[in-house]
Structure formats: structure tokens, C-alpha cells
Specification:
Layout (H helix, E strand, L loop, with lengths): L11 H5 L2 H4 L12 H12 L6 E4 L6 H13 L3 H4 E5 L6 H13 L12 E6 L6 H14 L3 E7 L7 H4 L3 E4 L5 H15 L2 E2 L1 H11 L3 H14 L2 E2 L1 H8 L4 H13 L2 H15 L3 H14 L4 H19 L4 H23 L1
Parallel strand pairs: 1-4, 1-5, 2-3, 3-4, 6-7
Helix pairs in contact: 3-4, 6-7, 9-10, 9-11, 10-11, 10-12, 11-12, 13-15, 14-17, 15-16, 16-17
């Protein structure tokens, strides 16, 4: 069995493999979304016209899976000999470019059985590379472009120097649509014979935010904690507040006096082990769904964003909870004033 072949169904190793890897697409046809990008890359590789690639976008959107599927298509069983795979966040300096990458690109490899005459250098998390390393990589790409193709993967394309961007064909991988995430999750649920309710599936899709890797990790973690996967099990496993809890908190913020809101929200946090930053994030989304004057909504969302920012730097939770309640108190006053 080749190293890149899918694990057989009765493999003991398959039972302990993270589902992110176990169910990673093996071919371009298996990639969950971005069919326009996939079809373009598929056509370029089929016509032996593959350019240098720059794949960028949020985590868990299929960038690495796509380029690995391309490598399998091009090299088949010779993939280990024909592909140099590096994680640039670990090996990010100029020495890696001068030694590992240049040595690989300059070495002639006899690729018996490979479908392509060029080698492939895969640089994951390329936005972590130093500027010096990127400039050195630019020169290596120019020198060895006849024998080697380079594929750069990153989250933040703005951290890639223009000289590198101009030498690559760029493809942006947007967050996955809910329908794509749901379809792939159903495939995994059927393959693993899981007991997942419809509201549990909706919760998985919602919490993933278009990140397929996150969706699979949550699914596997919840399955390890509970054989019956419903909405409550998913939220309890991730530590996120349940939608009904957010509705209750929002009701207190919009209707109760300051002291009552503070006490009730603090008690819920202590009882359910919720993080205030998660509550602020979910309450912000709730604000989009309730009816209020647009100027009040904008101000409220901006104030909540400021509080979330402060919480991300470790500001005191009690002080920030007071800020949340004060923000909603001002919004309530503005709503009443606009109604008169």
C-alpha cells in the first residue's frame, strides 16, 4: 500500500487517525467546494501547463488538500520523490531556501512512473517566511522554473512580497458555504455510523464558520464525549454558549436593570463555565437579528467590538461585563428616544 493511499475500512490505525486526515480528499474530485478553482487547476495539470501557484484564504478551506490532490494526480506512487513539502512557519529562514529548497530544485530526480516532468515544492504557511527568505525564494523560482514548480499556501496574502506574488497564479479560497460543510459532514457521519441529530448537524455547521477542519475536529471531539450528538452536546463540548442562553442573556441586557443583569449573567457564566468573549461575540450576532434603528445598531456593534478587542488582551471580565451592560443601557435609551 502506498503511503498516500486511503486507509482500509478495517485498519486499526484508521480508528485512531484524526478525522481531518482520515477524510482528507484524495483527489481533486473529492474537494468539497471551490469547483471553479479546482476545475481550472485540474485543466492546467491535465494539459501539462501547471504554473507556480499561490493559494490563499482562511484556514480549513481546502488549500492544502487541493495541492496534495494535484501532487497525487501528477506523480502517483512517485510523490515522495517528486515533492518537497515544508511548513514555512517551522522552517522560515533564508537558510532553508538556500539549502533544502535549492538542493531539491537543482537535483535531477529519475521519476519512473510519474506523470509530470517537473518536481513540486510545497510551502505551507508561506506568510510566516521572513522577507529575506522570500527574496531568496524569488531567485530560486527564477533559476529553476524549467524543472520545478512552486506552490505557496498562506492565510494572509499581504505578507507575501509582490515579487513572489507576480510569479504565481493566485487563487483565493473563501470560507466554505454552509451547504458544502453540511454535505461533507454527512459523508463523514455516514462513514463513521454516527448518531447525529439535525439540530446537532446545524450546530456543527454554525460553529465551523466555513472552516472544514474545525467542523471535523468538533465532530470528532463531540463523538468522543457523547455517542448521541445533538445541539447541546456540540455546544457543551466546545464550551460555546447555547443559542437559548444567548437569547436569555440578550433579554436581560435589553430589559433588566444593571445590577440584575450583572448578577444573572455572572451566575450563568459561573454555572456553565462560559467565556465572556464568546458571549460578546454571540450577542453581537444576535444584535443583527433584532429590530432597532440602524444608527443604534451600528453604535452598539462598534461598542461590542471594542469590548471584544479588550477581552482578547486579557482585560478584567467583570469590568468588561459592566461595559457590555452599560452599552446596552445606552442603546435602550436611544431606542426609546427614537420611538417618541
Amino acid at each position: 500500500m502506498d503511503i498516500d493511499d486511503p486507509l482500509p475500512a478495517n485498519s486499526n490505525k484508521g480508528k485512531t487517525t484524526p478525522w481531518v486526515e482520515k477524510f482528507r480528499p484524495q483527489s481533486l474530485a473529492d474537494v468539497a467546494a471551490h469547483r471553479d478553482i479546482i476545475d481550472t487547476i485540474d485543466r492546467l495539470t491535465s494539459e501539462n501547463k501547471m504554473p507556480h501557484l499561490l493559494l490563499y484564504g482562511p484556514p480549513g478551506t481546502g488549500k492544502t488538500s487541493t495541492i496534495l490532490a494535484v501532487a497525487r494526480k501528477l506523480f502517483g506512487s512517485q510523490m515522495q520523490n517528486m515533492v518537497l513539502e515544508l511548513n514555512a512557519s517551522d522552517e522560515r529562514g533564508i537558510d532553508v531556501v538556500r539549502q533544502q529548497i535549492q538542493d531539491f530544485a537543482s537535483t535531477q530526480i529519475f521519476s519512473f512512473g510519474a506523470k509530470a516532468s517537473v518536481k513540486l515544492v510545497l510551502l505551507d504557511e508561506a506568510d510566516a517566511m521572513t522577507k529575506d527568505a522570500q527574496f531568496a525564494l524569488r531567485r530560486v523560482i527564477e533559476r529553476y522554473t524549467k524543472s520545478t514548480r512552486f506552490a505557496l499556501i498562506c492565510n494572509n496574502v499581504n505578507k507575501i512580497i509582490p515579487a513572489l506574488q507576480s510569479r504565481c497564479t493566485r487563487f483565493r479560497f473563501a470560507p466554505l458555504d454552509a451547504a458544502n460543510v453540511k454535505e461533507r459532514l454527512k459523508y463523514v457521519i455516514n462513514a463513521e455510523k454516527l448518531d447525529v441529530t439535525e439540530d446537532g448537524l446545524v450546530a456543527l455547521v454554525r460553529l465551523s464558520n466555513g472552516d472544514m477542519r474545525k467542523a471535523l475536529n468538533i465532530l470528532q471531539s463531540t463523538h468522543m464525549a457523547s455517542k448521541h450528538i445533538n445541539e447541546e452536546a456540540v455546544y457543551l463540548c466546545t464550551g460555546n454558549p447555547l443559542p437559548k442562553d444567548i437569547e436569555q442573556i440578550s433579554y436581560w441586557l435589553l430589559n433588566e436593570p444593571f445590577s440584575e443583569s450583572f448578577k444573572k449573567i455572572s451566575d450563568m457564566n459561573a454555572t456553565k463555565g462560559l467565556a465572556l468573549v464568546d458571549i460578546v461575540r454571540e450577542v453581537t450576532m444576535f444584535v443583527f437579528r433584532i429590530k432597532m434603528p440602524s444608527d443604534v445598531r451600528v453604535q452598539l456593534i462598534n461598542d461590542l467590538a471594542d469590548i471584544e478587542y479588550r477581552l482578547s488582551f486579557g482585560c478584567n471580565d467583570k469590568l468588561q461585563l459592566g461595559s457590555v451592560i452599560s452599552t446596552f443601557t445606552r442603546a435602550r435609551v436611544a431606542i426609546v428616544a427614537s420611538a417618541k
